[in-house]
């Protein structure tokens, strides 16, 4: 050895074998345990229930810092899923083989396969939900009971599981129906039921069951129809296998972007076939079809299967590269009938909060005395109603009603940022018509709603305008505020009469049960008239009713002058004034909510607080009560304004 080599060897001592070589070899890929589809939710304490994810099933093989990601067919997709690797590379100095699902989370806190496909290509943040541990430090765990394997998995993840891209898929024992209703109310795919005492078997067994909320599955692409121009792909021709034969299941032509169509067409053109691979195809379909080898798999949602076996109202979700075409068979998904109330499971509320990046402190804190509604329950509630609520609250300046001590006695309004607020509640500045600048708060997704829950927000009140157009209101609200001695029948009739006057003026309106004592009559507008014009119209309208029917209405907010009558509150229609947002909870006993209803059903309700969080969550899954609200185009014309003076 030269003097130079000797000097270098002293400065850089060799690593011992134990430091440079992993103690355990990298675990080998194993066939996945798969689920059987069922309509029946099993019962009993020996069943564990987990969320059904809409992503890529994956096995993670770990040996020290070496990590390999396997798809369900055993392909190495480590490079494609490199964004989830850092916490896995630091998970253990030993070895492990973990089963789970890689997902992308959308703004509603749901796993979204289409978003996942985009995320893989774009390198956007993804999450790995771990739900089973097959091997640990060379020890085969597959013959141990599932519950024991999950306990070992939770222990292995420990603090690492707090990393945003690595999550433990928790479970609930028994209560399957409750978990299922919670998942469906939140717009999720469904649940997985697993026997707690079952061993891991690389096959499809009745020990793991999947129960779906929606009709959605994979289909084999056996051909396509060209667009009328002869350029491009108009629709895909779909099928599933049955007794070794490819059975025609219809076509899908919606759900594609133009970029998707180009990419898929390029894949199809590489697989030409002279004759159809289908056992049979309707003549009118075959006449215009281009046939391809049945190698590609598409995921499709649909409303139902027709008596002849074809899909009705199909919509494309994405191509599946992790599933073999010859394994695709027709499943029998269930249709979920909405119950009168929804079960909002607090445990799932915690999971959803974590999925959207919000950590709930004291999640088991009861928010409404005398109820079981906790902070985690409210997180589950907002996940269930987010799709309906967000169009009414996104990008609108807010006032928040927060509770300080959990007894509904010490609530306060907040309009500006305070220290420690979650980042999902945004803070900004805008200029009012008066020329003064104002600090505002707003939210734009489910994370913002659940961030409010974390801050003990019990009410979300919104402006009538967007923050981007602060001087042009998008809606009018008439808040019917009755005297203490009046019953709800009087309020309902007043709302119906106000609707009649508005219709005579050419304005459509929709009723909102406020969750308190009254009803809001809401009039959407094309944002053309400014706040001064809108407020002036609303005051004139209220005074018109007070003049023409003084025994029922008053336009003065004084409670002394309101006795036996109703105040038509027009003051909510000034710039900076707010009104309760549809679907918001209320800071009132019983956990009531503000819920949109139809004019036809309004007379059937016995109070303005007819919906608590459970009934409101179920209601949000039914047909839209305010059908056409966001589509109507009506303006506050000079003719309309003059008619009420």
UniProtKB/TrEMBL annotation:
Gene3D superfamilies: 3.30.1490.70, DNA ligase/mRNA capping enzyme (3.30.470.30), DNA primase, PRIM domain (3.90.920.10), Nucleic acid-binding proteins (2.40.50.140). It catalyses: ATP + (deoxyribonucleotide)n-3'-hydroxyl + 5'-phospho-(deoxyribonucleotide)m = (deoxyribonucleotide)n+m + AMP + diphosphate. It holds the Pfam family DNA_ligase_A_C. Residues 1-24 are annotated as: Disordered. Its EC number is 6.5.1.1. InterPro entries: DNA_ligase_ATP-dep_C (IPR012309), DNA_ligase_ATP-dep_cent (IPR012310), LigD_ligase_dom (IPR014146), LigD_pol_dom (IPR014145), NA-bd_OB-fold (IPR012340), NHEJ_ligase_prk (IPR014143), NHEJ_LigD (IPR052171), PaeLigD_Pol-like (IPR033651). Its cofactor is Mn(2+). GO terms for biological process: DNA recombination; DNA repair. Residues 128-253 form the ATP-dependent DNA ligase family profile domain. GO terms for molecular function: ATP binding; DNA binding; DNA ligase (ATP) activity; DNA-directed DNA polymerase activity; exonuclease activity; metal ion binding. This is DNA ligase (ATP). It comes from Mesorhizobium kowhaii.
């Amino acid at each position: 050895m030269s003097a130079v080599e000797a000097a270098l060897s002293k400065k850089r001592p060799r690593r011992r074998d134990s430091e440079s070589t992993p103690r355990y070899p990298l675990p080998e890929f194993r066939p996945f345990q798969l689920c059987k589809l069922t309509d029946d939710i099993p019962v009993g304490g020996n069943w564990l229930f987990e969320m059904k994810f809409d992503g890529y099933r994956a096995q993670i093989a770990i040996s020290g810092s070496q990590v390999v990601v396997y798809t369900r067919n055993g392909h190495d997709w480590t490079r494609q899923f490199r964004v989830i690797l850092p916490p896995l590379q630091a998970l253990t100095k030993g070895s492990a083989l973990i089963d789970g699902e890689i997902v992308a989370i959308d703004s509603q806190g749901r796993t979204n396969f289409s978003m996942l496909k985009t995320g893989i290509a774009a390198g956007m943040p993804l999450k790995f939900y771990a739900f089973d541990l097959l091997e640990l430090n060379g020890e085969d765990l597959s013959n141990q009971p599932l519950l024991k394997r999950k306990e070992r998995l939770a222990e292995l993840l420990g603090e690492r599981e707090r990393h945003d891209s690595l999550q433990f898929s928790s479970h609930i024992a028994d209560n399957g129906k409750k978990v299922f209703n919670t998942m469906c109310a939140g717009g999720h795919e469904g649940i997985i039921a697993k026997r707690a005492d079952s061993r891991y078997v690389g096959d499809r067994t009745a020990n793991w069951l999947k129960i779906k909320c929606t009709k959605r599955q994979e289909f084999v692409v056996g051909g396509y129809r060209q667009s009328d121009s002869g350029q491009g792909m108009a629709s895909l021709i779909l099928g599933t296998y049955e007794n070794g034969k490819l059975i025609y299941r219809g076509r899908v032509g919606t759900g594609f972007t133009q970029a998707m169509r180009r990419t898929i067409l390029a894949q199809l053109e590489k697989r030409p076939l002279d004759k159809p691979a289908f056992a049979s195809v309707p003549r009118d379909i075959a006449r215009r079809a281009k046939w391809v080898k049945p190698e590609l798999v598409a995921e499709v949602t649909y409303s139902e299967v027709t008596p002849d076996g074809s899909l009705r109202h199909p919509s494309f979700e994405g191509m599946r590269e992790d599933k073999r075409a010859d394994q695709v068979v027709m499943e029998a998904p269930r249709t979920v009938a909405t119950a009168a109330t929804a079960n909002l499971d607090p445990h799932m509320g915690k999971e959803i909060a974590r999925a959207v990046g919000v950590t709930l402190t004291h999640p088991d804190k009861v928010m409404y005395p005398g109820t079981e509604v906790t902070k985690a329950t409210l997180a589950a509630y907002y996940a269930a109603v987010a799709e309906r609520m967000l169009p009414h609250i996104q990008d609108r300046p807010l006032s928040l009603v927060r509770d300080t001590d959990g007894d509904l006695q010490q609530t306060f309004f907040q309009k500006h940022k305070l220290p420690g607020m979650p980042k999902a509640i945004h803070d900004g500045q805008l200029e009012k018509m008066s020329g003064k600048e104002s600090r505002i708060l707003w939210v734009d997704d489910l994370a913002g709603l659940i961030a409010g829950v974390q801050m003990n927000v019990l009410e979300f009140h919104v402006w009538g305008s967007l923050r981007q157009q602060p001087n042009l209101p998008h809606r009018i609200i008439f808040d019917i505020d009755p005297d203490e001695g009046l019953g709800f029948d009087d309020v309902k009739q007043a709302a119906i009469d106000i609707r009649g006057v508005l219709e005579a003026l050419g304005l459509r309106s929709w009723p909102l049960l406020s969750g308190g004592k009254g009803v809001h009559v809401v009039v959407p507008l094309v944002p053309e008239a400014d706040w001064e014009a809108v407020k002036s119209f609303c005051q004139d309208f209220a005074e018109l009713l007070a003049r023409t029917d003084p025994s029922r209405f008053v336009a003065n907010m004084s409670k002394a002058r309101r006795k036996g009558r109703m105040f038509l509150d027009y003051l909510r229609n000034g710039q900076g004034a707010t009104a309760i947002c549809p679907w918001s909870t209320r800071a009132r006993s019983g956990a009531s909510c503000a819920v949109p209803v139809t004019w036809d059903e309004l007379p059937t309700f016995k109070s303005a607080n007819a919906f608590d969080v459970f009934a409101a969550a179920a209601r949000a899954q039914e047909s839209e009560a305010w059908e056409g609200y966001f589509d109507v185009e009506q303006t506050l014309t000079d003719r309309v304004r003059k008619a009420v003076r």
